[in-house]
Task: structure prediction
Amino acid sequence: MVWVLAIPMALISSAVFPANFFQGINTFYNGDPASNGGYVFEPHVAESVFNSMLAQYSNITVHLGTSFGSVTMNGTTITGLVGSDGVTYQGRSISTPVIPAT
Result:
């Protein structure tokens, strides 16, 4: 599974997002010491917590099952992305980080 994310830099650089992620996992396991404060988890639990966190942000879109095939640039600005599935993602510019995550 591949996730393609466009996440605002303020969200990435903030310590709040990762802290809430691990807290969400710890909450899922009801504080069980085996989860080591949320740092030990099953993949489906991490996916569930991550998806529920992203659902709070209407400007974040997740595209599953694709990776970047090519990038269109205007100078130093990314203006489009072509997925390995052939879908083109375009806008005025893509100024927030786009993270290919596997």
In short: Helices lie at 9-13, 16-28, 43-54.
